[in-house]
Batch of 2 targets.
Target 1
Amino acid sequence: MLQLLTNILEQPAFLMGIISGLGLLALGKKSDKVIVGTFKPILGYLMLAAGAGVISGAMEPLSLMIEEGFGLRGIVPNNEAITAVAQQVLGTETMSIMIAGLLFNLVIARFTKYKYVFLTGHHSFFMACLLAAVLQKADLPSLTMVLLGGFIMGAASSILPALCQKQTLQVTDGEELAMGHFSSIGYYVSGLIGKVVGDKSKSTEDLKIPDSFSFLRDSTIITAMTMIVFYLVAAIASGSTYVEGLSGGQNYIVFAVIQALTFAVGVAVVYNGVRMILAELVPAFQGVSTKLIPNAVPAVDCAVFFTYAPTAVIIGFIASFVGGLIGMAVLGAVGGALIIPSLVPHFFCGATAGIYGNATGGRRGAVIGSFVNGLLLAFLPALVLPVLDVLGFASTTFGDLDFAVLGIIIGQAINFVGQVGVYAVAGVLAVILVVPSFVKTKNKVIGHDMTDYE
Amino acid sequence: MLKIYTVCGNGIGSSLMCKFKIEEICKEMGLQAVVESTDFSSAQGMNADLYITIAELAAGLADKNVAVIRSYTNKKKILEDVEASLLALKK
């Protein structure tokens, strides 16, 4: 009996379903809603696992071709890919940390001056996965690991939106919104650079960009297009004989294109699964937070901010991608891992860096800020690779900057002092969280200074 | 029952936030509707009474009934942008 129960709870899919079902019961929802709300996350999780299979299948020939063609380890930073694939080994840990992290975020918002409620569910999921992977090395008992991981995730979900908030208000012109996207360190840096080098009055929004760039928002299409380019380059570099050995005789160009498109399909399936999980989870989370936390500021996905500066989105993306290419060349030259600039992080993070750079420093701020963001997107995911080794899966990594920064800090802390390192990181975060409660701050919500906008 | 889709690039971030606002607005207007969020590629192959999205994506949904919004999250702006379309559906 106990064995059966453990077996059920060890399935992350069931864990999500049960929690979602219980939550809906507690909210007093009707039985049909409860049934749908229990099944959807379970199906969504299994769909995600299916997508992961597709991605890793398509990824294998790519890394083989890069190794053969360039003699380098080729790595595609893609959050969806690494998280989905990591579920095969760290599913229960990821889901447990995610639930603990969401709860810690609410507790922190309730009791400290960090009143930011992090509503970007897929990023919470990636963060939980990163922490599950990095904390493996510390060899903690599983309950301690979930609690510490959950606390670190909750703290990051509260502190990072606060860090950006002053600039976020400049972007939105004083809306009750915060940045809830774990590449916020890049946006913050871009905003700072903009302030130093730029001129706010020369906004990107006075320029006109043709409508034909709008297809870039469609992430399935841009993933497919980039992957075709990379698979073709790798296939040509490694030669037709080698590739046709992998493909079982299929023409190497055809094989490369099909594998590239299959990769994009895998990512689309993963997104669909994530969508089914979040469709139930996020509304419940938001419902709880509006009831329990007065003055809460919702921290939302970066694409929400695109509407405030659509031209900076395109300029930021291009500048960031150029930065990524230069970064790749530098890493390749020094013989590090080849971080292939994947268009998805450059589009979403580069665009947002452009918006922040524009808000503080106009056109020049947008270009230089997101160029630096692009360089960071090339170097930091490379530095986080060693601490992700436990995944035993080396051809993908986390794309966005906060994952890389937190992963490097925690991973290095564990390398130097072991378990103590994890407690130290959690302790520092706890201090950052509680100190504002004991000193007089200008505002009730830290960082959220609305005086210029009212 | 009416079917409404909110649309963004991935269908999990901005459009989900927007879905909540549209649900609130429909409720206040006394409109019975199922609101769901979706991504741009899937939206093109779906059938709904109304699609709600931003100007950059609306062009790709030209043959559908689309309401163009300026913001995914600002309820006041959203209401201004979708009110006419929702009132038309109510009839």
Target 2
Amino acid sequence: MIELPLQISLEQWDRRYERLKADGLKEPWHGGQLSRHAHNGDTRLERLLFDNSAASLNLWNFLLTENVRLEKARQEGKKLIGVMKDLGTVPVMVYSHPDCVAFYPDGAWWIPCIMESNSGLLEIADSFGIDDSFCPVRAMVGAFATGAHFPLPDLSICSVGATCDDFSAIAQRINGLGFPIFWWEIPHRRPPEPGETSIELPGGLHASFSQVAFVKSEMARIKYMITELSEIELTNQMLASGIMKANQIRACLNDLRQTVFTARIAPLPALELLIAEMMAIHYCSDRDEVLGVLWGLLEMVKRRVAEEVGYFGPEAVRVFWINPVADIKVMNVLEKCGGRICGTEYLFTHALDHIPTNIVPLEALARMALVDPMVGPASDRAWRICDDIQRFGAEAVLISKIPGASHCALESSLIADEIRSRFNVPIVEIEVSSLSDASQSSLEARLCALVETVKEQKKRNDVCFSRA
Amino acid sequence: MPKNKVIYSSPFVPAEWIVAHGLLPSRRSCMGHGCDAPVHVMAGVCPYMRSFINRAAEDSDTLAIICATSCDQMRRGFDFVNLKTKVPCFLMNIPSSSQTPGAYTLYKHELERLGEFLISIGGLKPEPETLISIMLDYDRKRRELLSNQDTMTAGEFAQALDRFHDTGQIEMDHKKQESISRNIPLGIIGGPLAKEYFDIFDILADNEGEVVVNGTETGVRTLPSCFDLRRLSDEALQVLAESYFGAIPGIFERPNNRVFLWVREAVKNHGVRGMILVRYLWCDKWHSEVQRLREWLPVPLLDIELDGNPLDGRATNRIQSFMEMLQ
């Protein structure tokens, strides 16, 4: 018998933490009361609702202690590599090297949310001419300028080419402020043309041999840079082993996603699942520890499913969520309105796919990089989303637009069109800023309307069925 | 009207290559109004991209459209043409990390792929001699245009360049003068300046200013360098690639120091006393550089955001104030 799942506040977590400790809770070094992070400035936590399991506590503590791990790694003499934009490819290479650790400065986009208005990062970005017409990832400018939110990397590696303009512009601004960046090219993915050799990519898409070969050569440049920085060669053997470990983490996450999305009753709230999914990108700066965190979560989720306990009951509307949100509180809002997550596409599906192990590592990584949903046409992204909507049985779709992002304005409508052409599910588009409190009531109204629409549809279908 | 024009906007698409395939290139820089499809979305969308795509897709003489990846909104615009119209459309990968050997190879490969596309829409496989002769012709015309620059006003020169980009022809309808009397020498930089905005040259002239350097995407900054004639007969396509991709400084390049160096040189060589940046709403790549340009330039900078509508009284007032400050 396990304790019943319950969403609790930060204050409630403190009391629960004491009880768990008294009952003999064992924690890794990053463990402790969640509220300490709020006291240190992460005040958004005070406004969130959390899953009450020890596994989720471990997840949150792991997430919120990343900087401590980075500082520790630097003290141990490891090289810190700031990886930008590619969302999942280059960290596999960096962690293959025993003396290097990767992190995403892009992650700073959540700092204005987590720290609410305490960070001042957006104001600093403003002062460098990167105003609120840019995506919230502009917080990264402030983080680099102050050096206060993550240790300044020994090397920054950023992908360019088929990327969003706002990110590219912000990274260039950082470069212009005197922070050197190693740029690598990711070309727009296209289907092979007649006469071109076709290569299958993870996830089932295809690219031409020449594109794969080009990206492979870019991967070789990155490999060279890591070797130069660390002064120890990053070998193919190291890369192969790094890919194997990455696949272990991906397999665990895929199991977790599949279990959560297909369970009759949601075994894990949307917020914790979002945090867990994000771990796929760079392991929150500890590749070995992340697996333990995710296994703990998966075990707990499977127990809940087996015992048929969870959240919101089977009547909760199954919602497919597209794009990550700048304000994580909105994940709570969906559930408050009667929805549950049943499928996600947070812009890094390529970080969840199995990386091929039967080819040379650089080519495997090139193939992975090319499946990045941002790199290809909107129709490819829509195709994969539609597949997952069908696979997980989503009843509604929520497209969360990122304010100022050059891609969202255009691709959202194309993705929505494709979904409409294939499924009779309601779709709602929302735009979420870093702190959405001011627009909370209108967001809530939109999400409630989405949920109500599905419930009404279900009622009508039930009536038709019983009449028949 | 026959569908015979290959429409594009990027300066990295060589007109010579299209002509060599027996087709008519038309590099457009006009806004056009009243076209709402295929790009129907407005919020968050660059008005220039929207206008370019919608107008090109609607024009009755459009045989095909070429988009370039150097602008993400243009890359996304390609999706709209592809999914919502029957107009053949080609998306050309223009590498952003332009200062690497791999990027050159990719660009050249993209030219070859573009060639295949042109053949697929009715073009002819070019003979090397044909390509060389077309390249020489374009080279000569560009030189002729540039040599006449000093005898035209900035507006006249912008018109002549625009016509050349659109038709490949040189039509200079100005009254030839020995030298135009210069007011305060100014530079103008930024994204493509649609011809609907050419009145900016008149507004500046009315306020005792004269643009001596047009570094917008439709100005001299994006003209390819002269071809290396010694290598032309052996490797024409390589020479073409080098003169375009190797010589045109783009704001999208990473790092984009070549644009900054170009601007600084232009200021120095032409005695520019004030710089005007024209950028479209939602153009992140120019917008993010406003402050850096201010820090980098030895002269004052006026930043003008274009929203797709004609320049309004506010923009005119700002230009007037800027000119007063320079006097």
